[in-house]
Structure formats: structure tokens, C-alpha cells
């Protein structure tokens, strides 16, 4: 009887994780550079053995669930914003760095300028170039420009990632290629970090093209996600009914046992 309850619970836990993943995908359908997350099941037999043999309550790591990121390119949108930059290749990432020197990878290309003239992401990470930070004031007097107006700076980024302000070269955007994309760890809506077993290499500017004034949108298909959510909700409800049925049967057995 208890095994039937465990089996039903084991089937519901992955469905719950899938529902959470789909909900996150839908919530980020409008996030630039977001990559769709999905869930798959590991070896069911090993998971059942773990469920039955480990004393106490089931742990969060018991469900046979793994995650997968769909790194296919999202649709391109023309914005005419000089600080919007899209990578015209599936395997290529912008290299970012936070204030503590930690490295991040992203496909999110909607950048802005901070008060010091550095090109940064919307959450404040620095875009890295071949000579470090990309700064639009590098060879100019800061008072000449309004840091909030990239068009006034006459910022140009060519398809090779070379950046110019008023036709003066300020650096080249660094792009990173990852051999095993699934080794990347998603740490925010559009940012990733490289794990210890991740092989990274800088991409030659001849092997990839950048598109200034364009933005790569999320690769989430909302219609497909909604269909998957409805299907999973039905499966979850079926598992709930199994648990309720076995719970009622168990309660009846306990009551009958009191009379013997």
C-alpha cells in the first residue's frame, strides 16, 4: 500500500518540477536573450530504489529529474538602438564581468552606459572587450557627451565587434564559444557561468557576426509552453487522484485492523 503511494508521489514530483520550469519560461518569454529551460527524467529504477531504501522523508534530490537548456537562437528584432547588439550565431556569448571580477556569459544584448561611460548590462555587469572594459569616454572628455544618449556619442559597432566612438576605435567586443553548452549553469534569467568542466575559447572575429541595432529575443514559444502546461496539469491531477484513492484504502484498512 505504501509503495503505491510512493510510486504516485514519485510520478508527481517530476511533473511539479516541469510545471515550475514551464511557468518560468512563460514569465521570461519577453526577456532578451532568455533560453528555454526543460526537464527530463533520469533512471526511474534507481530513483525508486532510493525512494524505498532511504529511511525518513523523501529528499528533494530523490526525484529522477534533470534540467536541459535549449540554446537555439531566438528571433531577431530590429530596434535601431545603438546599444542593442545581437550575435548572429547560435554558439557565441558576450563575456561579462561584475564588480568583483567574476565572469559571466550571456546572449542578452540590450546594453546601456553607466555614468563612467562603461558599456554595461541592465543589471550592471560590464561588457568585456579585448582590452578590458569597453569605455566610450576612453579617448574623450566626459563632459562632451550625455552618457544616457548613445546616439549622440555616434557609437558604431561593426559586424566584427569593433567599437568606434566618433570614428575613434575604443576596443573589440570579446565573444566566447562553449564546446559543451549543457555544462553551463544558469544563474539568472539570461546569464550563465562556466562550471569547472566547461571548455571556453575566444571566437575569432572572422567566425561570427554582430548586428548593431538588433536584439535577440527569448526562444520561448508561448503557445507550445501553454499546451505543455495544460497536459502536465492533467497528469498532476491524475496522480493526485491515485494518492487520494490509496489514502482512503489505507485509512479503511487501519480502521478494520482495530477490530482484530
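^ C-alpha cells above, recovered residues below v
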Amino acid at each position: 500500500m505504501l509503495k503505491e503511494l510512493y510510486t504516485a508521489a514519485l510520478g508527481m514530483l517530476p511533473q511539479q518540477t516541469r510545471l515550475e520550469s514551464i511557468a518560468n519560461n512563460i514569465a521570461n518569454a519577453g526577456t532578451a536573450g532568455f533560453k528555454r529551460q526543460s526537464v527530463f527524467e533520469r533512471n526511474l529504477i534507481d530513483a525508486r530504489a532510493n525512494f524505498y531504501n532511504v529511511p525518513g522523508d523523501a529528499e528533494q534530490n530523490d526525484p529522477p529529474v534533470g534540467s536541459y537548456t535549449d540554446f537555439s537562437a531566438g528571433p531577431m528584432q530590429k530596434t535601431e538602438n545603438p546599444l542593442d547588439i545581437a550575435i548572429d550565431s547560435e554558439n557565441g556569448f558576450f563575456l561579462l564581468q561584475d564588480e568583483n571580477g567574476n565572469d559571466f556569459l550571456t546572449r542578452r544584448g540590450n546594453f546601456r552606459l553607466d555614468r563612467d561611460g562603461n558599456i554595461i548590462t541592465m543589471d550592471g555587469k560590464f561588457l568585456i572587450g579585448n582590452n578590458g572594459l569597453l569605455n566610450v569616454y576612453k579617448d574623450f572628455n566626459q563632459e562632451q557627451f550625455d552618457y544616457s544618449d548613445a546616439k549622440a556619442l555616434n557609437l558604431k559597432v561593426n559586424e566584427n565587434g569593433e567599437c568606434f566612438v566618433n570614428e575613434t576605435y575604443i576596443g573589440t567586443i570579446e565573444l566566447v564559444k562553449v564546446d559543451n553548452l549543457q555544462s553551463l549553469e544558469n544563474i539568472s534569467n539570461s546569464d550563465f557561468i562556466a562550471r569547472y568542466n566547461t571548455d571556453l575559447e575566444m571566437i575569432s572575429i572572422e567566425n561570427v557576426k554582430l548586428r548593431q541595432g538588433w536584439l535577440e529575443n527569448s526562444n520561448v514559444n508561448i503557445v507550445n509552453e501553454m499546451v505543455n502546461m495544460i497536459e502536465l496539469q492533467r497528469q498532476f491531477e491524475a496522480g493526485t487522484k491515485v494518492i487520494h484513492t490509496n489514502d482512503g484504502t489505507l485509512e479503511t484498512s487501519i480502521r478494520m485492523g482495530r477490530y482484530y
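Residues 2-67+221-257 form one domain.
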